[in-house]
């Protein structure tokens, strides 16, 4: 964890010739690898300072988690990504607010392994999660369902927003998971749902990450409101409890 494999960023680029200095410059300027630090500073939502959002990408091997991550961070589709695990960081401005995206591109479930189990660290670190499957790979859809069950055992829908993303939408001829199935799963588990192609467009991928940030911010705001209400209830019951005792 916490390292950047330079080979990942120098692998053949379908858009530019290999070893293009321009491409390397783009990648190096937007990618920064950060440590997974459980004691990170609390996000400061109210006073327009930078907001930190930790996003965890999960799913089976080969579904395009790294492709989605790199597409979002660099706007590029590189083609081959290797199988490394890293947390990348990038700052964006959305609606006038600085958002720091920390993106944990998790290591894939290995072939033959039924379901990669998520670590407690991953589960606790994430403010929002993206569960990725390939629309051409039913096994990867099953992995998403298994990982969802694991997430729900420790994190309620109200504490961590989850998006289900069917990737490789460009490969319609090879589709084995219908859009309807993806949508129904998302609906039944209170998740958002998208179908995208990391290979074809940047825009769809951007929408996924921005939607998740919106949901994380809504979740934080709701938590603050609920904490406020609980505080009022505690004060009121303290006063009335005291009166009754007098
Ligand atoms: N056709 C197509 N191929 C994709 C897409 N996204 C990723 N891939 C390819 O699928 C393979 C696995 O992608 P990768 O991001 O390494 O998957 P990961 O193991 O989930 O991180 C690579 O060969 C990618 O080029 C997509 O949207 N369409
Ligand atoms: Mg990967």
From TrEMBL:
Keyword check for Hydrolase: yes
Keywords: GTP-binding, Hydrolase, Nucleotide-binding
Region called Disordered, residue ranges: 1-22
InterPro entries from the UniProt entry: P-loop_NTPase, Ras-related_GTPase, Small_GTP-bd, Small_GTPase
SUPFAM superfamilies: P-loop containing nucleoside triphosphate hydrolases (SSF52540)
Domain of life: Eukaryota
Gene3D superfamilies assigned: P-loop containing nucleotide triphosphate hydrolases
Matching PANTHER family: RAS-LIKE FAMILY MEMBER 11
Family from the record: Belongs to the small GTPase superfamily. Ras family.
Protein name from the UniProt record: small monomeric GTPase
């Amino acid at each position: 964890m916490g390292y950047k494999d330079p080979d990942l960023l120098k692998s053949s680029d379908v858009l530019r010739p290999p070893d293009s200095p321009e491409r390397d410059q783009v990648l190096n300027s937007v990618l920064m690898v950060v440590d997974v630090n459980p004691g990170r500073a609390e996000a400061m939502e109210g006073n327009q300072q930078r907001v930190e959002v930790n996003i965890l990408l999960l799913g089976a091997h080969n579904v395009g988690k790294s492709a989605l991550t790199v597409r979002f961070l660099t706007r590029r589709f590189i083609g081959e990504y290797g199988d490394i695990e890293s947390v990348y960081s990038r700052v964006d401005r959305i609606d006038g607010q600085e958002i720091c995206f920390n993106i944990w591109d998790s290591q894939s479930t290995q072939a033959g392994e039924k379901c990669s189990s998520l670590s407690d660290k991953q589960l606790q670190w994430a403010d929002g999660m993206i569960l990725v499957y390939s629309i051409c790979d039913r096994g990867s859809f099953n992995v998403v369902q298994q990982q969802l069950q694991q997430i729900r055992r420790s994190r309620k829908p109200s504490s961590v927003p989850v998006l289900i993303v069917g990737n490789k939408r460009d490969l319609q001829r090879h589709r084995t998971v219908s859009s309807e199935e993806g949508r129904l799963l998302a609906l039944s588990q209170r998740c958002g749902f998208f179908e995208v192609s990391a290979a074809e467009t940047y825009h769809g991928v951007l929408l996924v990450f921005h939607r998740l940030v919106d949901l994380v911010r809504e979740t934080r705001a709701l938590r603050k409101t609920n904490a406020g209400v609980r505080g009022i209830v505690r004060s009121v019951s303290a006063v009335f409890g005291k009166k009754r005792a007098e």
